[in-house]
Amino acid sequence: MFERMGVFAEFERSMTWARVSAGIARAKAAGKHCGRPPLAPELAERIRQALAVPGRPGIRAIAKQFGVSPMTVQNFARA
């Protein structure tokens, strides 16, 4: 009984994934943007400048200063 329930749950999950993928593909084909909006170029440049300063504060301090997440600053530090 539980095996059959598992099979049906897996099937439903795959069908849901297919519907979501089809919807995203249709939106992209219609020219819509999917995902988070990009960071403003001016803000990105200011973050890069803050990272380039010798003896700069830590990633979290820079993130707090600019009002972004630490991961956003970390991504700029890695690039």
Describe the structure.
It is a single chain. With 79 residues, the chain is an all-alpha fold. It has two domains: 1-35; 41-78. It has four helices and no strands. It has helices at residues 2-29, 41-52, 59-66, 70-78. Helix 2 (41-52) runs antiparallel to helix 3 (59-66) and helix 3 (59-66) packs across helix 4. The radius of gyration is 21 Å and the shape is elongated. The N and C termini lie far apart (52 Å). The model has no long low-confidence stretch (mean pLDDT 92).
Count of alpha/pi helices = 4
Taken together, the total number of domains comes to: 2
The chain-level mean pLDDT equals 92
Cα distance spanning the termini? 52 Å
Helix and strand content put the structural class at: mainly alpha
Strand content: under 5%
> Stretches where pLDDT falls below 50 for ≥5 residues?
none
Overall 3D form: elongated
Radius of gyration, taken over Cα atoms and rounded to an integer in Å = 21 Å
Helix content: over 70%
The run of helices and strands is HHHH
- Tell me about the biggest sheet? none
Number of DSSP E strands: 0
